[in-house]
Design goal:
- This protein has helices at residues 23-33, 146-156, 223-234, 258-263, 286-289, 321-335, 349-361, 375-383, 392-395, 401-410, 422-434, 449-460, 478-488, and strands at residues 4-9, 15-21, 40-44, 52-56, 61-66, 113-114, 132-137, 163-165, 172-174, 200-205, 266-269, 398-400, 491-493.
- With 494 residues, it is an alpha/beta fold.
- It has a six-stranded mixed beta sheet, with helices on both faces. Strands 2-1-5-4-3 form a five-stranded antiparallel beta sheet, with helices on both faces. Strands 12-13 form a two-stranded parallel ribbon.
- The chain is globular, with a radius of gyration of 24 Å.
- The two termini are 26 Å apart.
Amino acid sequence: MTGFHAAIVHPDQSVTYCGVVDPPHVDQARAIAAPDDAPRFVAEHPRHPGSVFVLREDGDLDWYEPVDAVPAPVHEPDAQPLAGAAEELHSLDGAPLPRTGGSSGTIWIAGAIRLGDGRIGGAMDTPGNPPRLVHHTTESPAGGRYLESIGSYLIRVGSEPQLIYCPVTDRVGQFGPLNQSGRALRNDGSRRTNREGRVCIQVEVLGRAAQPWTSGWDPAKKPGWQKILSAARSWGVPDEWPAGPPPKYPGGYSARSRSIWQNKGGHFGHVDVPGNNHGDPGAIDSKRVLGGTATAPAPRPPADKDAFPGVGKFGPGANNAYVTRLGTMLIAQGGRHFYSVGPGPRWGEADRNATRAFQQAQGWSGADADGIPGPTTWKLLVSGGGKDIPSAAKAKATVKVSHLVAAAKKDPAAPQGHTTYKAEVEVVEDALVAEGLLERRWADGSFGTKSITAYAAWQRSKAGGSYTGAAADGIPGIDSLRRLAARRGFTATT
């Protein structure tokens, strides 16, 4: 790595480019932000490895991106007309808002700080289903102007909710209209969780799941939070927790029931949403959140022996029976070559590497293949489903560029499914799938038009060499192939 592009994103979303800095500069920025009492902290880009953000209490967002990184995808909003000022008629400044929704509810909360251009999502997929509000935590400090800096971060990584709230200052920020979708949830397969229900209002609260933000917080003294509650009630969101109060983090349990999520209206934690693997917002006081006084949380249902135990059971420092079971299941799916001994209860690199290999075998990449099991990974392993981990021989395969060139010239013109050098082409196609450039269904050992298009995209990327024009024609060359091999664990030769 030769350096990082450095920029400052200001609270008004303007950007000041500061040039290229060396890695020691970024290391120093991380060190300054490391102490618990520092007025800044570090956040990584969830889908763009190496891109670092330093979030500051004054609202500025320092952004460092490797100069040789593949550009982060641009998240364009859906083509929907921007809302007008007339939509701000519903507010606490006038008559109280209704607790049940009519034909429309609050779209823009009066007095909320506008963040971004106001366009983040689109129409709901299931407007006939009940309305809901989803609670997140930012895993950050609160107070100061962290609302602006974290808002800028969420915009840059394309993970905006509709609302962001600071429980210390009682300030409310709004990214987009409440009657359209946010972007802070993962899909549940083909089901778009961000677009579930009449509305799916999402609120990122400044705080940490392990330290519930409702401790010592009095809703009666927080008019900003009361505006959020009134806006939710104007859409008919009931003052209920259909999946129960959010559990303690780490170590709590949530069934992530699809039936409850899709058919019940009310308040949910991120931890309750199917298809997601986060444990936030932690054990916030469910009664106090709804404007009442503090109450003891209701008991959670007993855990199913095959249910996902929570992401907190895995990763550095973990030492429990779930880690042993994970390793046993990974071995059953072809991961024996990652374990020289074990598996055992103490988390190690063998567990991470085997999990990542299994995730990549499903065609996942980026944050979806980070080596930490989520609910979907766990479900596939428990059921024995999904694609097996490639064998050790395939993982250490050697690919000749001349064979790939021959396949790229012969396979497209041949009958469907024709293969020239099937084993070597499969290695490269698997690597392109892992890079997010090729759909898993086209990784069949035939270097057809889909594979050529995907390889051309690899050549054009920074990691592939930033080739242009005829040099990015989808026909492998030794330089771009070696770059791919270095990232995906095979050997490229002439």
